[in-house]
Design brief:
Strand order of the largest sheet: 2-1-3-4-9-8-7-5-6
Number of helices: 13
Distance between the termini: 41 Å
Structural class: alpha/beta
Shape: globular
Length: about 500
C-alpha cells in the first residue's frame, strides 16, 4: 500500500511547489481540487495539506470546503489561505491587515518544542504573501510562532492534530520550510521511503496487472518522458509493446534519424513514420496557436489510430504525460492555459484505452526513474521538447521553408550549447522564428530578412522558470554564426522573460 499526503489546492500559484517539497522528502503526494477529497477511497492517506489561494476567506467566490470529516481524522496543515480558512471556519477571525504582509520575515518567537517547529530557531527566515491576517484563533488555538509584524505566524489547535502557518514553507525563500514540512511528515507517521526504485517496482507491478496480455501502442517523441514510459512498459509487457515515432516535419534538424538510432540501444520495437507532408498540408495557412496545437495533436492521433489498426488486437495507447501537463491543461478555476494534445483522453472514434505510467511525476522525477532503469544519459538529459514541436516555435503560419530556417538556426544554437558545456546547465533551450522581418546589411547589400529569438531557461519542474544568464560571448558567437550561415535570417535576439508571467514556449 502506497502511503501519501493529499494536498487540497485552493488555487495558489505555489501549490505545485508544496508537492515538489514533499516528493523531495521521499513521500508520495497528490494534488486534488479543494473540494475533491477522496472520501470512500482513503487507503494510504497519512495527512492533508491545505494550500494558499488568490482569494480572501471573505470573498463570495472564494474556494471553501467542509473540513469536519478531515481535521478530526488526519493530521492537517494549513498554509497561508489554508491557515486562515481553518481559523475562519472554526470560530476564529480573519481581517484585512493594516499593510499587505509580503516578502521575507523572521520568526521572532518560536515554540520549537511543538512537533511542527522542532529544530526551528528564533530568527529563521520565512516568506509571507497575504493581504488578510488572523486576528483571533479558534477555541483551543495556541500561537506557536510570531514575526515582528504577524502575531499569529503559526498556530495549532490543542486536542487535534491541526497546525497552520501564515507563511509559505514551500518557497525557496523560507529557509526553514523543508524542516517544517519534514516535521509535518513525521507527525503523519510517514515512512519517507518513496523513491525511483520503489516507483519502478510498484508501477511495473501495476502495469502487469492492468495490461495482462494486452497489446499497447506507444507514441514516442524522442524526449525523456515517452522514452521512460517505453522502457517501463517494455519491462512490464515486453514484445506486446509497439512504439511509433512520427516525423511530423516539425522536429529538430536530423532528429527523426538520430532518435530512431538512439532507441536501438533500448531494444524497443519502434516503427518510424514519415508524415511531414500530411502535417504541412493540414497546417497550411493556420496562424492561431491553439488551432495549430489541435491540428498537430489530431494528426498524431490519426496516425496512431492508423498504425494501431495494423496491430492485431491492440487495446491500449501509451503516452508520456507528466504532472505539469495535467496541471497546466486545466486549473481548478476551469481556465485552460494551453492545451496539451496528450492530456484529457482520446477521441471517441479511437477504440483504445489510455495508459500513462508517468502521469503523476514531475520532470526531474522522470529523469531519476530513467537513471534507475539504466537508460543512457543522452536520452535522460535531453531537453524537454513540446509535443507540437517547431509548430509552436514558428509564430504565424507554417511552411517548409520556415521550418528549414528554424531547424538550421536551432541546430547551431543547441550544438553551441553542448560544445560550450552549457546544455546541461539549462532546463530547456530552443529557437523561435518570429513573424518579423527587418532591414540589415550584409556586405554592401541591403537585406530584409527574418528575426529569430533564442530562449533558454532554468527550472526544476517547468511550473516556474527563470531565463538563463548565458555568457555574452557565447550569445555573440551563436548570433554571428546563425546570421552568417542560415539563409533568411539577419537578426538574432535573446528572450529574458521569466515564468510567470511568460510561458517557456512562446505559443
Amino acid at each position: 500500500m502506497r502511503e501519501k499526503i493529499i494536498i487540497l489546492d485552493f488555487g495558489s500559484q505555489t501549490t505545485q511547489l508544496i508537492a515538489r517539497r514533499i516528493r523531495d522528502l521521499n513521500t508520495y503526494c497528490e494534488i486534488l481540487p479543494y473540494n475533491k477529497f477522496p472520501f470512500g477511497n482513503e487507503e494510504g492517506i497519512k495527512g492533508v495539506i491545505l494550500s494558499g489561494s488568490p482569494f480572501s476567506v471573505h470573498d463570495a467566490n472564494g474556494f471553501k470546503t467542509d473540513l469536519s470529516n478531515i481535521k478530526n481524522k488526519y493530521p492537517l496543515l494549513g498554509i497561508c489561505y489554508g491557515a486562515q480558512f481553518i481559523a475562519y471556519s472554526n470560530g476564529g477571525a480573519v481581517e484585512p491587515a493594516n499593510t499587505r504582509e509580503y516578502g521575507r520575515a523572521n520568526l521572532m518567537k518560536v515554540n520549537n518544542e511543538d512537533p511542527l517547529l522542532k529544530g526551528i530557531e528564533k530568527g529563521a527566515q520565512v516568506w509571507m504573501s497575504h493581504g488578510d491576517t488572523i486576528t483571533k484563533l479558534p477555541q483551543n488555538g495556541e500561537i506557536i510562532a510570531s514575526t515582528e509584524s504577524v502575531a499569529i505566524a503559526s498556530y495549532r489547535i490543542k486536542g487535534e492534530q491541526t497546525w497552520a502557518v501564515q507563511f509559505h514553507p514551500e518557497v525557496f525563500h523560507s529557509e526553514c520550510g523543508n524542516q517544517i514540512l519534514d516535521n509535518f511528515l513525521n507527525i503523519c507517521g510517514c515512512k519517507k521511503d518513496w523513491n525511483p526504485a520503489s516507483f519502478i517496482e510498484e508501477t511495473v507491478g501495476k502495469l502487469k496487472e492492468k495490461l495482462g496480455n494486452d497489446k499497447v501502442v506507444l507514441a514516442l517523441s524522442g524526449g525523456v518522458d515517452s522514452s521512460v514510459t517505453a522502457v517501463l512498459l517494455n519491462k512490464a509487457i515486453g514484445d506486446k509493446l509497439t512504439c511509433v515515432f512520427v516525423n511530423n516535419g516539425l522536429l529538430r534538424k536530423n532528429e527523426f534519424e538520430d532518435v530512431l538510432r538512439d532507441y536501438e540501444v533500448l531494444g524497443l520495437n519502434v516503427r518510424g513514420i514519415d508524415a511531414k507532408e500530411k502535417f504541412y498540408s493540414e497546417l497550411k495557412g493556420v496562424t492561431d496557436p491553439e488551432k495549430k496545437r489541435k491540428i498537430i495533436g489530431k494528426g498524431f492521433i490519426d496516425i496512431f489510430n492508423e498504425e494501431a489498426k495494423k496491430i492485431e488486437d491492440v487495446k491500449w495507447l501509451g503516452q508520456g504525460t507528466i504532472y505539469p501537463d495535467v496541471i497546466e491543461s486545466l486549473s481548478i478555476t476551469g481556465m485552460t492555459i494551453k492545451s496539451h494534445h496528450n492530456v484529457g483522453g482520446l477521441p471517441k472514434d479511437m477504440k483504445l484505452q489510455l495508459v500513462e505510467p508517468l502521469r503523476l511525476l514531475f520532470k526531474d522525477e522522470v529523469r531519476r526513474v530513467g537513471r534507475e532503469l539504466g537508460m543512457p544519459e543522452n536520452l535522460i538529459n535531453r531537453h524537454p521538447f513540446p509535443g507540437p514541436g517547431l509548430g509552436i516555435r514558428i509564430l504565424g503560419d507554417i511552411t517548409p521553408e520556415k521550418v528549414r530556417i528554424l531547424q538550421d538556426a536551432d541546430d547551431i544554437y543547441i550544438r553551441g550549447l553542448k560544445e560550450n558545456g552549457l546544455y546541461d546547465k539549462v532546463w530547456q533551450a530552443g529557437t523561435i522564428l518570429l513573424p518579423i522581418r527587418s532591414v540589415g546589411v550584409m556586405g554592401d547589400e541591403r537585406t530584409y530578412e527574418n528575426t529569430v529569438a533564442l530562449r533558454a531557461v532554468t527550472s526544476a519542474d517547468a511550473m516556474t522558470a527563470d531565463w538563463a544568464h548565458l555568457p555574452y560571448e557565447f550569445l555573440a558567437k551563436v548570433s554571428n554564426e546563425i546570421i552568417n550561415k542560415v539563409k533568411g535570417v539577419n537578426r538574432v535576439v535573446y528572450d529574458i522573460s521569466s515564468k510567470p508571467p511568460a510561458t517557456i514556449e512562446w505559443e
